Amino acid sequence: MTLIVQKYGGTSVGSVERIEAVADRVAKHHNAGEQLVVVVSAMSGETNRLLGLATSILDDPTPRELDIMMSTGEQVSMALLTMALHKRGVGAVSLNGSQVRILTDDSHTKARIKDIDSRRISSELESRHVVVVAGFQGVDEAGNVTTLGRGGSDTTAVALAAALKADECQIYTDVDGVYTTDPRVVDGAKRLEKITFEEMLEMASMGSKVLQLRSVEFAGKYNVPLRVLSSFDDGPGTLITMDEDNEMEAPQIAGIAFNRDEAKLTVVGVPDTPGMAYEILGPIGEANIEVDVILQNTGDCGKTDFTFTVARNDLAAAEKIVAAQTERLGAVEWSSDSHIAKVSVVGVGMRSHAGVAATMFRSLADVGVNILMISTSEIKISVIIYEKFLELAVRALHSGFGLDDEED
Ligand code: ASP
Ligand code: MG
């Protein structure tokens, strides 16, 4: 028998009408003979509303109390959906995290799942019940309610799918899949039929935020086929899997990702001696600032220019460190620029296709976009450019790699 885990996000259960629509969909799958575990988020806005209540009493509530409060949002959704299923004559039961026994560590508000007891769910499924589970929550060894971090219902769904060895984990949301790039930037952006876990991680980390990243990592680790689809219409969505097909036939790239949240810092005239990169980036790391692209080039005069990028809201802190180190190391000067952006082409097809970099640079040259920095990995090439050219660059790359939807 086919076992499917479905997850419905906040907008999909955002009102009584939406919950009734979800119940229709679940009932259809149930009546088609599937075994179903349905994970729900809190109704949209609810988790924030609860947090607002808490902080109106105390600026800094303890994480334990926050968890027990925030976990109620999902429990309302699970009970309402179960009632809506009963109304349709579908046998269904709701279970919260501790009733299932989704065992986590005790890091309140960002707990990690350690183990899932699948016995209760399995016996309900054997009785032909739909099992509706509250997302985002678990319980620690001592019986305290924990939550998994914002957006954590995706992770609940994937973890349940892994524990139950489900055939597929379907994430219902308000978009109908993963696109080749942001459709707000490129009209002809296409929904992907399929994408690999690796590609999805690279796309998601740079802006195509449909799924909580952690759930994609989890799904990749346990090889849970994951499908993103819309609860607002019917369609196949996008399947995220391990399967890379026949790599020879894979398209060169899956999509174009971009990120405006970048700033760069440059130290000019750093002495060309061992340890300088460490002198600059060591204190940056100690300040918990994540560095993205790094570029260093040694000239012939015994001096080096050193450039790196950080997230924009870390720029002020990074500038202080760079200013201090420029002075201490006897470098010539430093500068920074926050009007930059990163554009990346992503695809496992790069492993077997030569010339992806050439196509990328030609496409950018054709529209006169200047490249400030380049960085590469096995399945991704990124360039840092001026932010004002971002949309132009994304469009040029999208058509340069033949991704434009012909029908549009
Ligand atoms: N309700 C939680 C949140 O808003 C968890 C989730 O929706 O995935 O972050
Ligand atoms: Mg979400």
Write the layout of secondary structure elements.
Elements: E1 3-8, H1 16-31, E2 35-40, H2 46-57, H3 63-87, E3 92-95, H4 97-100, E4 102-104, E5 113-116, H5 119-126, E6 130-134, E7 137-139, E8 145-147, H6 153-164, E9 168-173, E10 194-196, H7 197-204, H8 213-221, E11 226-230, E12 238-241, E13 255-271, H9 276-286, E14 291-298, E15 303-310, H10 315-329, E16 333-346, H11 356-366, E17 373-377, E18 380-386, H12 390-400
Parallel strand pairs: 1-2, 1-9, 2-6, 3-6, 9-11, 10-12
Antiparallel strand pairs: 4-5, 7-8, 11-12, 13-15, 13-16, 14-15, 16-18, 17-18
The site of magnesium ion has 3 residues, from loops.
CATH architecture of the largest domain: 3-Layer(aba) Sandwich
Largest sheet: 8 strands, mixed
Total of domains: 2
Secondary structural class: alpha/beta
Question: Could you give the count of β-strands?
Answer: 18
What is the end-to-end distance?
40 Å
Uncertain spans: none
CATH class of the largest domain: Alpha Beta
CATH fold type of the largest domain:
Carbamate kinase
Mean pLDDT, as a whole number?
A: 93
Number of helices: 12
Name the bound molecules. aspartic acid, magnesium ion
Which oligomeric form is depicted? single chain
Helix content: 25-40%
What share of the residues does DSSP label as strand, in percent? 25-35%
Spatial arrangement of strands, main beta sheet: 3-6-2-1-9-11-12-10
> Order of helices and strands, N to C?
EHEHHEHEEHEEEHEEHHEEEHEEHEHEEH
